[in-house]
């Protein structure tokens, strides 16, 4: 129990600062926390929740949800695919394979892509490509390229360089050297990262519709705006089901690939 | 080519490639994949006009004051949200941890009550984190009206679900013997947690919480798109008015904020490691 | 003349002088063994001969051209004519044996052929032929992480045989093999060089192997050439001087030197996966 006995002044200070930050946050936001738990508020919230049940299971609406779900799936898959390609292209210079200047430039681009949230990219892409799932695909692909590029570059940096060096030493061109000497080393990890991002992207793809970028999100936004909570509840259930299904598919693929 | 030389992987490869190509086509159709849309005159003009407006950045004092307020809103939302999430996650995470189960030691009622409780907690966590935070926010905005309260609650619930699951996993994978011996000696669950598990798992738990805070900053940036205040709301307004200068300033603030949260979180975690 | 080195020197970035004033001429079809203590500069010398290391000083001429004055395209062409057997087999564990062997000709193939071969091996017959010479024909379509360390070494050897280089270099090619296999491998390299009339330069830790199989033996000490003699004239005294720092002559039967730390992934470090 020496760790317990040795609580330092620094730790006490850190905990104090942490509590102060939390308290300050609540104070700044001026949250009516107490008001949340008054009888009327609870009653109101209960009424609101009750309106979500039962979910709207009429055939016509289910068909609509299924179509939007397919659209969401397509957005998540295509964007992850595009991002894996873009990430691979940017990861090579970012791992320092084309000199120091290339490394810094690539890292800057990756950071830029990654720092702008998907939803913000979506608002920009809706301007650039018009309303619809294509804008959502582009938005997710841009953000994910930043994330995957960084992860791919890390995997590259940690892989042994000897196979590629041997091939380059035998006069093989750069692209061939990469495909024969480096890609087999990093492929399992790259695949695992891409599948993991796919799991995140199916969730993001489901909400991009809030800003007009297609999929289930658009449907949810409309039904809530029109106070059709029963329909909203169907959409939310569909989102949950798709997230679970994609998690399963991704885990299965990862196992198959031995990654 | 003789039978021994035929590549055994050729047929499966062909099959997988064909399957992938056959799947790709409907996917492209579903996602309305038309790169040409980027170059349609109407879209080019809209985007060009908007981008041209990026410079100069909007730096009027009024706007900067607004921006500053929104930035603090965003950070406060993330911090308060994580605090709520921890409040939610700790009890659920502890419930999930088998090494803190008193009934498992026996004798007494069989372990089925504990198992049922753990199953229920796991289900609850799955639903909490399964619904994206933005959907929660959209729902809470309906109940509590526009403003950051909806964002905080949404973050608290989603991240509570994530933290609870991961807390449970971390505690499960920690050496259970110290806690077990404390429980067998008759101490309570909380004491067993504090003296048996936390000394080994504390750092990892804290580190993961800090990492989630970083994610929460990113998430609260966009909460505003559904009316939950913060930078996102400002961005939404600027975009709707196609005010490039404001949008550019907000984007730059995003960048700085996200990179700073990134850096702060990494520094904190390194110091704890 | 297969290659000429004149006054070649090389100093590492950390200040360690690996080679100093090396003169070496080898005619086409000669077979030369490099011997010397660990760290004497054998590997550096071989890297200079492989046109993968640019010496700090001196003149290098390989296969009739000066690599470091040539255009990048010509340098690549030259490298494609030089085959190197590495100390640790530089083969990705998840690659299939057939692909690893065919990779020997990537420097000679046009781009489309290299890309096509990734999807469907373009010359499995050629790969099988070289593997058969090393008793590995039946492993053609296995994955490399299913092989033992010695087998992987032989795959790397098959790759270089498949390359059909004009200059064959080997850096401690038998360091991971047992004595019997070492003997076979060194004999095979010599046969190949004799059969195709190409030059062979191999660095060997085991002196007896060098003396038994190679007509010409070069002793390297402290980055310089101590002696350069026909195998019959290498005396006991010279060898003692060469290995003065190591205390005793390394023979094929003696404990082998551990592979250098910069060596690539050893075959045994990854668990065999899906090795049906």
TrEMBL record, chain A:
Major site of localization recorded for this protein: membrane
Keywords, comma-separated and alphabetical: Cell membrane, Membrane, Transmembrane, Transmembrane helix, Transport
- Matches recorded under SUPFAM superfamilies: MetI-like (SSF161098)
Query: Could you tell me the membrane topology recorded for this protein?
Result: Multi-pass membrane protein
The record's section on InterPro entries has:
MetI-like, MetI-like_sf, PhnE/PtxC
Give the signal peptide, or none. none
Bilayer-crossing residues are 65-95, 116-142, 172-193, 205-224, 230-253
Q: Extract the GO molecular function terms from the UniProt entry.
A: ABC-type phosphonate transporter activity
Q: Which CDD domains match?
A: TM_PBP2
- A Pfam family the protein falls into: BPD_transp_1
User: Which domain of life does the UniProt lineage start with?
Assistant: Bacteria
Q: Could you name the Gene Ontology cellular component terms for this entry? A: plasma membrane
Q: What subcellular compartments does it reside in?
A: Cell membrane
Q: What are the ABC transmembrane type-1 domain coordinates in residue numbering?
A: 69-248
**Which family is it part of?**
Belongs to the binding-protein-dependent transport system permease family.
Q: Name it.
A: ABC transporter permease
Q: Which organism is it from?
A: Zoogloea ramigera
UniProtKB/TrEMBL annotation, chain B:
User: Where, if anywhere, are coiled coils annotated?
Assistant: none
What are the BP-aspect GO terms? Answer: transmembrane transport
Entry annotated with the keyword Ion transport: no
Q: Which CDD domains match?
A: TM_PBP2
How does the entry describe its membrane topology?
Multi-pass membrane protein
Q: What is its main location?
A: membrane
Spell out the subcellular localization from the entry: Cell membrane
Give the PROSITE patterns listed for this entry: ABC_TM1
Q: Where are the transmembrane segments?
A: 46-67, 74-96, 134-157, 215-235, 247-268
UniProt key word Endoplasmic reticulum = no
Keyword annotations for this protein, in alphabetical order, are: Cell membrane, Membrane, Transmembrane, Transmembrane helix, Transport
- Where is it found, in Gene Ontology cellular component terms? plasma membrane
Q: Pinpoint the ABC transmembrane type-1 domain residues.
A: 71-265
Question: Cross-referenced PANTHER family, in alphabetical order?
Answer: ABC TRANSPORT SYSTEM PERMEASE PROTEIN P69, PHOSPHONATES TRANSPORT SYSTEM PERMEASE PROTEIN
Please give the family membership noted in the entry. Belongs to the binding-protein-dependent transport system permease family.
Q: What is this protein called?
A: ABC transporter permease
Q: What is the lineage of its organism?
A: Bacteria, Pseudomonadati, Pseudomonadota, Betaproteobacteria, Rhodocyclales
From TrEMBL, chain C:
Region span, Disordered: 253-276
Ranges for the ABC transporter domain?
3-247
Which key words tag this protein in UniProt?
ATP-binding, Cell membrane, Membrane, Nucleotide-binding, Translocase, Transport
Question: What InterPro entries does the annotation carry?
Answer: AAA+_ATPase, ABC_transporter-like_ATP-bd, ABC_transporter-like_CS, MetN_ABC_transporter-like, P-loop_NTPase
A single Gene Ontology MF term assigned here is: ATP hydrolysis activity
| SUPFAM superfamilies reported for this sequence | P-loop containing nucleoside triphosphate hydrolases
User: Under which name does UniProt file this protein?
Assistant: Phosphonates import ATP-binding protein PhnC 1
Tell me the organism's taxonomic lineage: Bacteria, Pseudomonadati, Pseudomonadota, Betaproteobacteria, Rhodocyclales
Per UniProt, what is the name of the gene that codes for the protein in this document? phnC1
